[in-house]
Write a structure and sequence with these properties.
This protein has helices at 2-7, 10-16, 19-35, 38-53, 56-110, 118-130, 132-139, 143-153, 155-201, 204-209, 213-265, 271-293, 295-314, 371-379, 401-404, 422-426, 434-444, 447-451, 470-482, 500-515, 550-561; strands spanning 331-340, 345-355, 360-364, 385-391, 394-395, 408-411, 420-421, 460-461, 488-492, 519-523, 535-540, 543-549. By secondary structure, it is an alpha/beta fold. β11 and β12 form a beta hairpin. It is elongated and about 115 Å long.
């Protein structure tokens, strides 16, 4: 049943690949647990044989045998531990890339912060594999063996060991019921508080300048207090569970020793049997104690396994999409609709149009008309869509993204640079081709600026640009979009933070792209860039209000603006 359930999930199939390792761990556990009877047998021999016979030779022989068994037991435990460590490393190697791509795909599809938890789930499972918890599960089947041996010493000792074991099992299950929900809740609340403050720190300058720190502090404290309360409640449950487990364990050991002493007084058990019975009971309960002690780690690994199973079952790895020798950049949009909030909010409605190489298409429209969403749909990165975006006649979601991505240039509205050097950011973190990096920088007019930096192209920037101004960050991101002459370029508000020199460099770059036969789609609110437009698209309320040659569209919209009852659109002046 267990193997069948594992084989039904991709993560379970990976775990089943370690059957051989787990079998060997079971073998080493068998050897180690059998040899765990060594101290019991040694004590029996000491008290029941050596102390009576006063034979030093017998003592020497059984001591040497005891040491030999201890050496074998230590080797078995060492090999078991090394095997588990190697299995955890191999487990990580098999899944790290798969989890990485699946997490990015899921985050792109849902854009939920809790998706980021999956990055730590792999580590939680891997650490559990090498921790005391998994060893306790391998040792647990041997608890009945120690209980059976206790019955051989005396039935009363066996019954006590059995009763105490049942009590420990009951406590373990009750502890799971009491703590699992609390641990999950405290983890969730802590993640919410951490995510809240991290998102605000990204805009720390605006937060501090406008006196928002105190307001955000109160909101963060609310979340932080919820996390602390949940963690405190969870810790109280765990501490009560640990205290009760320790109390019962000490009572069990003492009661077992007392019962053995009573049997010795009645002449039904030897002194060696009394001490051996206490040791056997301790060994029988030891795996249960370890399971209780590692219960938090077990719950984290269990929750991580559930999340990773759901994640990997929805991810389709290894399915190579469409591959072509070249990408022309022809784009055709067919009945495209897009929505947000799981389809509850409509953003784009039944858009059909096309874009051809060598043409500069500029999209304008009021805020909230769906321009940025349309750009993301063209890139195939908006989750809730209907219809098709075809690149060279193939749906963009059916392309091999590793092949198509380098042939696409995309500048999002919210510019984001990543931790690394300027050269790495421009080169999209591939192997740096210095000539292509410099060429992209020259196209956007930032080459000289970069050379004046102390470390030039090796200057390191943090997230969002670090020491760079908004305009400089935008031009670096633009250079990244133009790196290696992409066939399709989509620029969302590329001139939002540019000065006159930057906008002129942008216009020159756009003209050069069109002259080289690239497909250029540009979204803007500023009028200057219209000078390079071949075609103008007007968006309003998620639909194309007009589409055609620039001058004709402007004329039609001006004419419509003079009709009674229609709002006159704010159209920029054009400059030839």
């Amino acid at each position: 049943m267990i193997f069948r359930s594992l084989s039904e999930s991709r993560l379970g199939q990976v775990i089943l690949e370690f059957r051989r390792e787990f079998i060997w761990v079971g073998v080493f556990s068998l050897i180690a647990n059998i040899l765990m009877l060594t101290p019991t047998m040694y004590l029996l021999q000491i008290y029941d044989r050596v102390m009576k016979s006063q034979n030093e030779l017998t003592l020497s022989v059984i001591t040497l045998i005891m040491i030999f068994f201890y050496v074998v037991m230590a080797i078995a435990q060492l090999l078991r531990s090394r095997l588990l460590v190697r299995a955890s490393v191999r487990f990580n190697d098999l899944l790290n890339s798969l989890v990485f791509y699946a997490s990015f795909k899921e985050f792109l599809r849902k854009s939920k912060n809790n998706t980021v938890k999956t990055f730590s789930d792999l580590n939680n499972i891997r650490q559990f594999i090498t921790g005391q918890g998994i060893i306790a599960f391998f040792d647990l089947p041997w608890s009945p063996v120690y209980i059976v041996v206790s019955f051989f010493l005396h039935p009363l000792l066996g019954v006590l060991s059995l009763v105490f074991s049942c009590i420990q099992i009951f406590l373990a299950f009750k502890g799971h019921e009491a703590t699992s929900a609390g641990i999950s809740k405290s983890s969730e609340k802590a993640a919410e508080a951490s995510s809240f403050i991290q998102t605000k720190l990204r805009n720390i300058h605006a937060v501090y300048a406008m006196g928002m720190v105190a307001n955000l502090r109160s909101r963060w404290l609310e979340r932080q207090n919820q996390a602390v309360d949940a963690t405190t409640a969870s810790n109280h449950h765990q501490k009560r569970q640990d205290s009760l487990a320790k109390f019962l364990r000490y009572c069990m050991q003492s009661l077992t020793l007392g019962a053995g002493a009573l049997l010795v007084l009645d002449g039904k058990l030897t002194t060696g049997g009394m001490i051996a019975g206490n040791l056997l009971m301790s060994r029988a309960l030891s795996p249960l104690d370890m399971i209780v002690a590692s219960w938090v780690q077990f719950i984290q690994a269990k929750e991580g396994y559930t999340r990773l199973t759901n994640l990997l079952n929805e991810f389709k790895p290894g399915e190579k999409g469409h591959v072509a020798e070249t990408v022309k950049g022809e784009v055709k949009v067919q009945n495209l609709s897009a929505s947000a909030a799981d389809g509850k909010v409509s953003i784009l409605n039944d858009i059909s149009t096309s874009f051809v190489p060598g043409e500069v298409s500029v999209i304008i429209g009021p805020s909230g008309s769906g321009k940025s969403t349309f750009a993301r749909c063209l890139m195939g990165i908006w989750p809730e869509t209907e219809g098709h975006v075809l690149v060279d006649g193939v749906d963009i979601n059916e392309w091999d993204r590793d092949m198509l991505g380098p042939r696409i240039g995309y500048l999002p509205q919210d510019v984001e640079l990543f931790d690394g050097t300027l050269a790495e950011n421009i080169a999209r973190f591939t192997d740096i081709d210095s000539e292509k990096v410099i060429e992209a920088s020259r196209k956007t007019g930032i080459h000289e600026m970069i050379l004046h930096l102390p470390d030039g192209y090796d200057s390191r920037v943090g997230n969002a640009g670090g020491f760079l101004s908004g305009g400089q960050s935008q031009r670096v991101a633009l250079a990244r979009a133009l790196y290696d002459d992409p066939a399709l370029v989509v620029l969302d508000e590329p001139n939002a933070n540019l000065d006159d020199a930057g906008e002129k460099a942008l216009q020159d770059a756009v003209r050069n792209l069109a002259a080289e036969g690239r497909t250029v789609i540009l979204i803007t609110h500023r009028p200057g860039i219209l000078a390079v437009a071949d075609r103008l698209l007007i968006m309003n309320n998620g639909q194309l209000a007009d589409d055609g040659p620039r001058d004709m569209v402007i004329k039609r919209m001006k004419d419509k603006g003079r009709r009674p009852g229609l709002q006159k659109p704010q159209l920029p002046r054009t400059e030839e």
